[in-house]
Design goal:
Elements lengths: L6 H9 L8 H9 L4 E4 L6 H11 L3 E5 L3 H12 L5 E4 L5 H12 L5 E4 L1 H4 L2 H7 L4 E6 L20 H6 L5 E5 L4 H10 L6 E4 L7 E7 L3 H14 L4 E5 L3 H13 L4 E4 L5 H12 L5 E4 L12 E6 L6 H8 L9 E7 L1 H14 L6 H16 L4 H8 L11 H7 L13 H12 L5 H9 L4 H5 L16 H13 L3 E4 L2 E4 L5
Parallel strand pairs: 1-6, 1-7, 2-4, 2-5, 3-4, 5-6, 8-13, 9-11, 9-12, 10-11, 12-13
Antiparallel strand pairs: 14-15
Helix pairs in contact: 1-3, 2-3, 14-15, 18-21, 19-21
């Protein structure tokens, strides 16, 4: 590790933050100390910082194995702007480009290298690495290693060969979606040595989930266009079943004077990059995409994600809806489905996995997804239960609204203890409010943000009415000091425990 360089100093110098998100600092410390790590963090939870920051503290090169060029491009651009020597090896490069990068790797000039899993498992790549000083292997989208995961890629299972060649180099595996079965598979396949495991909460409280059964494709499209037209000044992603569907829907939206573009693997790379950059800088408001879009793209203000067709599994659905509302503000997740969607996916599944041991697993996942669509139960309860997390009625999905007549589900009543109320209120607001806004919420003072977030109906709104603002503010900061609540930037968040 570089001398006189602390985790906090590195965070402030290169990433211009003063506070960490839940579990980030603990994960980074484990990596810097040379331990294997498995981290499951919701989309928007800050996974990339957990390997980028240690890379700047460790002596040698960090190898990031990532499946998407879009992810590589976005992160390489961000790090390069901080004068960090970052390179990527992918199939789009010329022979001369690859030769230059490999030469710089062996000369110790590259701090972070992004590489696709296909290239990472080749003998030629391993031969080059043997001439380098490697300090860390970071495996992103690690669920791809598991047959039980929703995006199984056989080449991921060959990554363990790097462990055999570099037995003393720590491995850190990251994913946003992993059941207990998938997590165990990741540890086994990467031959991880008693890894420190960090499992964050899967609950994205600011997302409103709604599901619509619509058999008629034309009516379904009209409903989607109508929703987007009503929200034309905000950014959104619409996931479609096929490349043709992305093209058709984008055309329909443009005919309604909405700035929309299709995005799929059939487009030329410069065109995909143009659309991706346009979406990030808001010159393109809506992207109609196949599932490849969105991973690794740092855009916090996506206000809605629409699935124009039923996804093939709950993990994909959770990961894709998680691209909405990463700024913590309210966002909507709409899903359209029909029984014919289910039949179509099952037929594709039969074709894709015929004669494979994964066929039954894939069928089971389709049925679980369809079960989510038709269930009258709380959507959030179903999603969280799938990942092993419990949740009562959430009050923020279509089924809860139907059951409760649009009333908010109230948690237990506030106590007469201000400190207890503050901790409980932090669990409810969880990063939505700054300290002054949080104190106003506790005092029962209506503010624009509180009203927009629907928090005026929350039972902790006004829980500390009668207290003085100054006393309450002091109490908030005391609880931050004691580690009972978290101050992230200017916002108050709940404490999430390490498991």
């Amino acid at each position: 590790m570089k001398k006189n360089q602390t985790v906090q100093a590195t965070l402030e110098k290169y990433f211009h933050h003063r506070n960490f998100r839940p579990n980030q600092e603990e994960i980074i410390n484990e990596i810097v100390e040379g331990h294997d790590v498995l981290a499951v963090m919701a989309t928007g939870g800050g996974k990339s910082l957990c390997y980028q920051l240690p890379a700047l503290m460790l002596e040698g090169m960090t190898v990031v194995i990532s499946p998407l060029i879009a992810l590589m491009k976005n992160q390489v651009d961000l790090l390069s702007s901080q004068n960090v020597k970052v390179e990527t090896l992918n199939s789009l490069q010329t022979y001369d480009e690859r030769q230059r990068i490999e030469k710089e790797m062996t000369e110790g000039l590259v701090r972070i290298l992004y590489v696709s899993p296909e290239r990472a498992v080749t003998k030629a790549f391993a031969d080059v690495l043997m001439k380098c000083r490697v300090s860390l292997f970071a495996v992103d989208e690690a669920h791809c290693i598991s047959m039980w995961g929703h995006q199984f890629r056989p080449e991921y299972r060959e990554i363990k060969n790097l462990r055999e060649k570099f037995p003393n180099v720590p491995f850190a595996a990251f994913t946003a979606t992993a059941t207990k079965r998938v997590r165990d598979d990741i540890v086994k396949e990467l031959k991880m040595d008693s890894p420190a495991e960090f499992i964050g909460s899967f609950d994205r409280k600011n997302l409103f989930y709604s599901v619509y059964n619509e058999v008629n494709p034309d009516v379904r499209t009209k409903k989607i266009v109508s929703f987007v037209a009503a929200n034309k000044n905000v950014s959104g992603i619409i996931y479609c079943f096929s490349r043709a569907a992305t093209e058709e829907l984008a055309l329909r939206l443009r005919s309604a004077n909405i700035i929309a573009s299709p995005y799929h693997a059939g487009l030329a790379t410069p065109e995909r990059n143009r659309i991706q950059d346009g979406f990030i800088n808001n010159s393109i408001k809506v992207v109609c995409a196949t599932v490849a879009f969105g991973m690794g793209i740092d855009k916090p203000d996506v206000r809605y994600v629409i699935h124009a067709h039923m996804p093939k599994d709950i993990e994909s659905y959770y990961q894709e809806t998680g691209r909405a509302g990463r700024d913590g503000l309210p966002a909507q997740c709409l899903l359209f489905y029909s029984s014919s969607d289910r039949q179509k996916i099952l037929r594709m599944t039969e074709s894709e996995f015929a004669g494979s041991g994964r066929l039954n697993i894939a069928r089971e996942k389709v049925e679980q997804m369809y079960g989510y669509c038709i269930s009258p139960k709380c959507r959030r309860h179903i999603l969280l239960s799938y990942f092993g997390e419990e949740k009562d009625l959430c009050g923020n999905c279509d089924n809860c609204v139907k059951k409760l007549g649009a009333k908010t589900v109230k948690p237990k009543a506030p106590s007469k203890n201000p400190a207890k109320d503050i901790v409980s209120a932090a669990k409810e607001t969880d990063g939505l409010l700054t300290v002054p806004e949080f104190v106003s919420f506790l005092l029962g003072l209506e503010r624009e943000k509180t009203k927009k977030s629907g928090l005026t109906a929350n039972v902790y709104f006004g829980a500390a009415k009668g207290c003085s603002r100054d006393d309450l503010t002091v109490e908030v900061y005391e609880l931050v000091k004691k580690g009972k609540i978290i101050l992230e930037g200017r916002n108050i968040k709940r404490v999430r425990g390490r498991r």
